[in-house]
Amino acid sequence: MPRARLRNALYAQSGGATAVINATACGVIEAARRAKSRIGKLYAARDGILGALREELIDTSKESAAAIRALRHTPGAAFGSCRYKLKSLEEDRAKFERIVEVLRAHEIGWFIYNGGNDSADTALKLSRISEKLGYPLAAIGVPKTIDNDLVRTDCCPGFGSVAKYVATSIREAGLDVASMASTSTRVFVLEVMGRHAGWITAACGLAAERPGEPPHVLLFPELPFDEGRFLAKVKQTVGDIGYCVIAVSEGLRDQQGKFLAEAGSVDAFGHKQLGGVAPLIAQLVQERLGYKPHWGVADYLQRAARHIASKTDLEQAYQLGAAAVKLALAGRNAVMPTVVRVSDRPYRWKIGEARLEDVANHERHMPREFIAADGFQITAAARRYLAPLIAGEAPPPFVDGLPAYVRLKKAAVRKRLRTPFAT
Amino acid sequence: MPRARLRNALYAQSGGATAVINATACGVIEAARRAKSRIGKLYAARDGILGALREELIDTSKESAAAIRALRHTPGAAFGSCRYKLKSLEEDRAKFERIVEVLRAHEIGWFIYNGGNDSADTALKLSRISEKLGYPLAAIGVPKTIDNDLVRTDCCPGFGSVAKYVATSIREAGLDVASMASTSTRVFVLEVMGRHAGWITAACGLAAERPGEPPHVLLFPELPFDEGRFLAKVKQTVGDIGYCVIAVSEGLRDQQGKFLAEAGSVDAFGHKQLGGVAPLIAQLVQERLGYKPHWGVADYLQRAARHIASKTDLEQAYQLGAAAVKLALAGRNAVMPTVVRVSDRPYRWKIGEARLEDVANHERHMPREFIAADGFQITAAARRYLAPLIAGEAPPPFVDGLPAYVRLKKAAVRKRLRTPFAT
After folding, report:
1. What's the gap in Å between the CA of B268 and the closest CA on chain A?
2. Does residue B3 register a pLDDT over 80?
3. How far apart are CA A156 and CA A336, in angstroms?
4. Which of A47, A147, A154, A313 is the catalytic position?
5. For the whole model, what pTM was predicted?
6. Nearest Cα to B84, choosing from B70, B98, B74?
7. In what order do the strands lie in the sheet with A39-45?
8. Which of B147, B149, B154, B313 is catalytic?
9. A252, B100, B227, B276 — which has fewest CB within 10 A?
10. Contact assignment for A301 to B265 by CB distance below 8 Å
11. What residues pair up with B340 in beta bridges, in sequence order?
């Protein structure tokens, strides 16, 4: 019975959810199902790497083909994700060994980890410890982050859909403000995500096609906030066209490098928790210029907005998932499939491959030449890069007026280890 | 030349823009074009009633049929709107007389005013002063308000699309929070519009189809905020299902009737300016329960979100515009077409008619039986009422990944009066 000897695979989702991370899951699962002569079961870890530590595995074979297909149009992280940072192999040796123990107990030969640079780092370490322990494992990363800050890939699944959402939203809100500016709100401020890199802020700029169209001012996390220049720009814009629409990054910093929206709390990775710079900017405008402001904070709405996902982003998310399985079956280890841009117009891309050690813990910054000389707009080069990433629509099915999203059964795999994971 | 004797009509948009107010404009303009044997020119006032005061009229006949058609899918108020409240006929007599002077100068026999209850009041007064002055004018109101608070109509155009947006958004954000709750955000708070009536807050409740699905807590403006009961409910929800999603009205009040998010500023109608109750609720949850919160404020995004407009809402907005012209041609005065619900399931509606004096300055409250006994959810009766209003999708055309919205020429009509409007 050669079937019995097939090794299993484990897929896990990591970090912040996106509108298309489940499309990657779908790509992984469908590719694994097609490779049933080579891969035994495809398990998914419940709540990301924590599921691997706790031996909380989900048997994806219990989900119907239709349910798996529906992952393509369902936001969130369907198997659960987590923010749980493993430290160095030395410091967290017991945890890494525990994961290998779980993998061994369930005869898992491939680990496919879907996340950002922290996750690439974890996958890399797992492949190293397995080697040291003599356990045969191939660890494959799959890129995912709305921050678009992974190196060695042209873009990251999740980003294109946020980009489409924020550009659409600011275009729509801009029309609203334009309608009312003569007697009501003159300045609208939209806060968007992107802690250290201004990719999402830059994407807001796509909404403006002709001079004078909103957004008029982009506040990038890359440039220290210059209050005087900012206020002068807002005043000039209101003077010229009657109103001003602003997109501000949650990660906007002052001249001393301090976040304007410093909230004081810290997440599991030691990242500062941000939120609330839009009301500060609105208040500044009101107090110093006397214009009536309104502000919005899209927060999770932007990264969960599957209803307005980019078709390009969706397709890349899916194909990268399928490519990860292909790499696994090709015997690759400690690598990640990437998006390689072949041409801007027409937009063409293909799947490439990067080594996890080249990706882990590196951060890709937005090129300075993407920001216009005055610091408040994007350049033509930025548009060339960004425009293809938001192209195409792929709306989910709607039932009774609302998107119909799938909830999986998430059937638990029977535990085989006697000891629970001790945190 | 009988054509020369045709009287003209004036259309104006009032108050906050919506995703579908331009669909009403399209209905008005297309109906007027079809009635070219009876109506001369259809003018639009620039920036609402201010355009009538300032004699700033737009000649809609200069817009192509395609541009007018594109109003159906364009948010904002394409001709401009304003918040400018006319007082009583006695107090503001000079202004009302000025408007009649403008109407007379441009041979306008019909005034079609698209707005909420303040606008119904203005249209009514204008019809009365015209009568007193012996100027033949028919004033027709057309309902529009995301607040859904007009009496004598089953619903108000603009509301259904906001309802669809907030229910979609909270369903999507809910999936995101559910994915991450084990190690990250446990409580998400979305602030929605609706100053005095909880219609929009109630619409968030449509996202939950089965027990345990988000949103778990709705905070209505109708019910004074009870901190203790609220915190107990959040704690219980997190205990039961691991996370909690909350929708809060911008108009939430404390036990003394004071807005929680009192910002202190006041708009042109003397309404208090609100915003920012979500961060307060999030902070309360963090401080008192220790759960990590996230919060969003949709603000203008919700009422401008044409990309996710309700097809039902869109159709009603259009038909009410066309009906206003029909009423005008039927010789009606000081009336407003309304939506009459014929049945819930299947949803059937027809156009009705209300007198402006029955609509002006009244506010329709949400029935108490729409709020569940515990005050945190909606009832089956609320669902029956709300569900049809968000039904159907009618996405705008997309170009290069973004909704393609029309910008009109807004050709100015030559002024005929010698005196400008003195504010």
Report:
1. 8
2. no
3. 12
4. A147
5. 0.96
6. B98
7. A57-59, A39-45, A7-13, A108-115, A138-143, A335-343, A348-355
8. B147
9. B227
10. no
11. B350
Cβ atoms of residues B251 and B259 within 8 Å: yes
Query: What are the tens digits of pLDDT across the range A230-250?
Result: 999 999 999 999 999 999 999
CB A176 within 8 A of CB B303: yes
Which among B125, B245, B230 has a CA at the least distance from the CA of B179? B245
Residue of B nearest to A13 (CA): B179
DSSP for residue A220: -
User: Tens of pLDDT along A92-143?
Assistant: 999 999 999 999 999 999 999 999 999 999 999 999 999 999 999 999 999 9
Helix, strand, coil tally for chain B in percent (to 5): 40, 20, 40
Q: Is B400 a catalytic residue?
A: no
C-beta separation of A53 from A415 below 8 A: no
Chain-centre distance for alpha carbon A353: 19
Q: Contact B75/A183, CB-based, under 8 Å?
A: no
Q: Tokens at residue B342, please? A: 């014929």
Cβ distance B16 to A180 less than 8 Å, yes or no, reads yes
Please tell me which residue of chain B has the smallest CA distance to A313.
Answer: B401
Verify whether the Cβ–Cβ distance B180 to A83 is below 8 Å.
yes
- Give me the residues paired with residue B113 across strands: B12, B141
Q: What's the DSSP call for residue B14?
A: -
pLDDT band at residue A262 using 50, 70 and 90 as cut-offs: confident
CA atoms within 13 A on the CB side of B47: 17
- Whether A156 contacts A143, CB under 8 Å: yes
- Is this prediction's ipTM beyond 0.85? yes
Beta strands in B231-320 (DSSP E): 244-249, 293-297
Q: How far is CA B193 from CA B16, B169, B287, B355, in A?
A: 12, 14, 25, 28
For B402, which of A206, A267, A297 is closest by C-beta distance?
Answer: A206
